[in-house]
Amino acid sequence: MGKKELSLAAKRKQDTRRAAFVFLLPIALLMIVFIFYPIVDTFYTSLFKWNGISADKTMIGLKNWVKLAKDTSFWTAFKNNLVVMVLSICIQIPIGLALATFIDFGGKKMTIFKVLWFIPLLMSSVAIGFLFSYALATNGGIFSAISKIFGGGNIDLLGNPKTALYTVIGVIAWQFTPFYMVYCMAAYTNVPTDVYEAAIIDGATKGQYFWRVALPLLAPSIKSAAILSMVGSLKYFDLVYVMTGGGPGTSTELMATYMYKQSFVKFNMGYGSAVAAGMFILISLTSLITMRILNGRKKGDA
Amino acid sequence: MKKTKSRLSWGIAWILGIFWSVVALLPFVFMVLNSFKEKFELLTEGVFSIPKSFNLENYKTVLTGNFFRFFFNSVIVLVISLTILLFISACASYPLSRFKFRLAKPIYSLIVACMSIPIHITLIPVFKMSKDMGIYDSIWALIGPYVATAIPISVFILTSFMREIPKEIEEAAQIDGCGKYQMFFRIIFPLAKPGLATLAIYNGVNMWNEFSFAYTLTQSSANRTLPLAVWEFQGQYSMNTPMVMAVLTLTVIPMIILFIFAQDKLVKGMTAGAVKG
């Protein structure tokens, strides 16, 4: 009797495993073919000199990696990625939070602002890149037009290596601030209304309520927003590629645009693979370190 | 005292709010206004001048060109990729959320860890594969990468959604003799519909706007998707700003329509990706 029950349990376990295998098979195949194999293959290709088309593919060992380590353009790109990352977090999240707070405190009549402010998020990065490359043009751009009203001359924001990166960061902020606004609004709905009522009955002003009550309650959401923004900024590509192509010079070059140009414009696929693999390593490291720091602090708080 | 202070801060908040509205909308005004102008009108008349005549010539040129070809390519890629993605992600999330087996946790962690992988590391091998398989420069080359790169986030969201389905429902079905496969198709899949809807919007918007793979894996304008329509027209009419603005306006219209008719769902769907990493 006992033996039979045991084998029944074993059979059930086997059934479960078999069903799990069947259900997981399709995504396993797709992820192996389009994610895991390509990662391995990119590392492998980084050991070759290859133009991506001809059969002429020479093994050159770690030469591409040595070149990468000494490549100032790549490290400039990485530094630009870090600048984009830090400034994106420092600009988008506070403004997004401020907009969400304005809407949350203002009540129903603010719906119109919610709709207006969401609009930039409806455009694709490519479309935004093109729109701003015209809207910021020296001749016939928005800023030049405004400057002319005040008697100034044309303004060249994207063509000047000193301002180009910050202009790009501004455009990225224009695109993603609405995202963090919506995100913070969702976080606000998780703050119970009686917390707000209790604070007001106790005589807190709205300002005090925000700084002392709401902000600490929103902190975990803001932290995950920061992680999201961080990972996003390190991978950033479309808008910058379309708007500046990394230029002028390397002033707005990002790791992804550099990788793309090496691989698909100059057709150095071997070296492009090394750049891609390097980018993969740097992003994984940066994410790991940041998560460790943020999670470490959480433990300290508790 | 307290009241005047609070009134003052509200006043400042309103000014900043209106300022941000101007910042958010000015580029759109620029785009739409100039799309109605003639080629050199914006240089001679100024950027924010009202168009002399609201002429629809630019739109006509764009729409009689390849525009609909791009549009339908996008629709086909979207429909096929999304259907496959949602079905197989639901399949995978079912055992990961509701079965007890040893590998459930490691597999789940591996899939979730893939969320922060930059697609650029897959670009060269995927490009090679599409050439080897002979699907380079066709919309079919896009479906595999689109589905695969969207799997991690989809499984992550669907798994947490399916965990919330009460156990009693499953147990009742089990007593009625329902096997694991029937359970999925008759009970779990239908109950997961709200989660699938959110995911459809999130991934749909991303696929609709996708640029890197589309730009790398296709070449001829007959086989390209909508984000590249702008690219093509820009190449053709780069000096003709109003024409480019007309293309841009046309590419935003589908999203604006979706926003008007399903604002809450769209907002919810687009922020679905905002999950702790």
Sum up the overall morphology of chain B in one term: globular
The amount of beta strand of chain B, in percent, is under 5%
User: What is the helix content of chain B?
Assistant: over 70%
Average of per-residue pLDDT values of chain B: 87
User: What string gives the helices and strands of chain A in order?
Assistant: HEEHHHHHHHHHHH
CATH architecture of chain A: Orthogonal Bundle
Taking all Cα atoms into account, the compactness measure Rg of chain B is: 24 Å
Helical segment count of chain A: 12
CATH-assigned fold name of the largest domain in chain B: MetI-like fold
Largest sheet of chain A: 2 strands, antiparallel
The number of helices of chain B is: 14
Domain count of chain A: the total is: 1
CATH class of the largest domain in chain B: Mainly Alpha
Distance between the termini of chain B: 46 Å
Q: Which secondary-structure class do the elements of chain B indicate?
A: mainly alpha
The largest sheet of chain B is:
none
Order of neighbouring strands in the sheet with most strands of chain A: 1-2
SSE layout and pairings?
The complex is a heterodimer of chains A (302) and B (277).
Chain A: H1 2-45, E1 48-49, E2 58-59, H2 63-70, H3 72-106, H4 111-118, H5 125-135, H6 142-149, H7 161-189, H8 193-201, H9 206-235, H10 238-243, H11 255-265, H12 269-301
Antiparallel strand pairs in A: 1-2
Chain B: H1 2-35, H2 41-45, H3 57-64, H4 67-98, H5 104-113, H6 120-132, H7 140-163, H8 167-175, H9 180-191, H10 193-209, H11 212-217, H12 226-236, H13 241-261, H14 263-270
Helix pairs in contact in B: 1-13, 3-13, 4-7, 4-10, 4-12, 5-7, 7-10, 10-14, 12-13, 13-14
Pfam family, one (chain A): BPD_transp_1
Domain ABC transmembrane type-1 (chain A): 78-292
Main location (chain A): membrane
